[in-house]
Design goal:
single chain; mainly alpha; CMD-like; 4-carboxymuconolactone decarboxylase; Decarb_PcaC; 4-carboxymuconolactone decarboxylase activity
Amino acid sequence: MSERFETGMKVRRSVLGDDHVDRAEAAKSALDEPFQTLITETAWGNVWASDGISNRERSMLTLALLAALGNFEEIPMHIRATVRTGASKQDVLEAFQHVAIYAGVPRANQALKLAKQTYAEMEADQA
């Protein structure tokens, strides 16, 4: 694998956690392997690996963009990642408030609903 892939995998694991990445890797098939490599190299090995902003800020941006574009399926994964990126619940709320103003209340409302559910699950897992 390329150096960017190796960097991407390291960053991906540090943000999403080993368990998540191991499950994703185990679910890879010949069909989606090139796509998974693309994501690992570009999203994780380039964008997330950049030292231009902190992972906390990157987490907030990612959550806001997912919500603004209606890509709700990945919001729980990125809420769980906030444990490792340092984005607080207040940070997430602030990001979704921006979404409400600039992209629409319904999208922010759905994102906040998912965040609340995910935080509740995370708290139940720790109990």
